[in-house]
Amino acid sequence: LVKAGSGLDEKSGMRMACGVKSLGMQEGSAKVSFSASTVKEKSYRLVVGADGLASKVRELLIGAIGSKEVQIKFPGWGRWLCTIPASLFPGAAGEKQMTEFWKEGRRIGAWPCAGGNLVFYGTVLHPRPAPIPDHPQAKIEAFCKDFEFVKDDFGGAMGRIFEHLKANKKRIDLKLEYPAQMKVDGEIPHSSAALIGQAAFSINPSLFQDYSMAIEDAFTLANAIVNDDSAKLLEEEDMSIALRAWRNARRSKASIVEQASEEFHKAAKSFSKQGVMGYITSSLAP
């Protein structure tokens, strides 16, 4: 997407910035002002909102969360995340693979990251979001309570993780989050704006496809707005047609992934509640 933006002429340029304050939308251009006083208001050919679930760009274009155009709901589970030494959980992940285990309403897994570490995650079924602890000790206690029932599983790995968190409570990055689903019914009535990633939609997170969909959004948008012959951005009329086609295609893809995620979510809840241990191992791309 950044490469596609470089198809602009040198005078116009491309800006990646946070803190959008207002948008003045017209066909073929968008006047953007920023909350930072050091950044001047300027007009652009295209504004791409990639600012997540609480997107300010989406709010300015379509409406705020909770409006009839933008509805959000909680799918019924929370997710713990933290970075741990790979030696604590040797059976969870190889150099290029991740493994996920299911048992009694929990999903536990890890994938490799830099420095011989793993990103560990564990999900917990909740009928509604519980308060998120804001103190390291409280977080550790809440985490241990959620996963005490598997403390002796995986060759004692969970017990080792408990001890590691307690011994490093001032340095750990343990966090609890509640992934949400968002449905956007409003349309962007301009040819000078687009939304990608969670700014555009947030599907049931059971298949962890939000990030993949965001990457695909950016890739397909870049292909849609560039003229194949000139490698420059499309002219205004062609841009409008291309963006409408792109939005329809992405909405269709999101609907397919959402349906698959919902079905997986129902199956996982049913399977894990029966107290059966299952696991999935996935190979990671190079």
Concise structural overview:
This protein has 286 residues and is of the alpha+beta class. It is built from 6 helices and 13 strands. The longest helix is centred in the C-terminal third of the chain and has 38 residues.
Describe the structure.
With 286 residues, this protein is α+β, with helices and mostly antiparallel strands. Helix content is 30%, strand content 25%. The chain has 6 helices and 13 strands. The protein has helices at 2-5, 56-61, 136-147, 157-167, 210-224, 236-273; strands at 20-26, 29-34, 42-44, 47-49, 70-73, 77-85, 97-103, 106-113, 117-125, 175-177, 181-184, 193-195, 278-283. Strands 10-6-9-8-7-13 form a 6-stranded antiparallel beta sheet, with helices on both faces. Helix 3 runs antiparallel to helix 4 and helix 5 (210-224) runs antiparallel to helix 6. The longest helix has 38 residues, at 236-273. The protein starts with a helix and ends with a strand. The model is unreliable at 275-286 (pLDDT under 50).
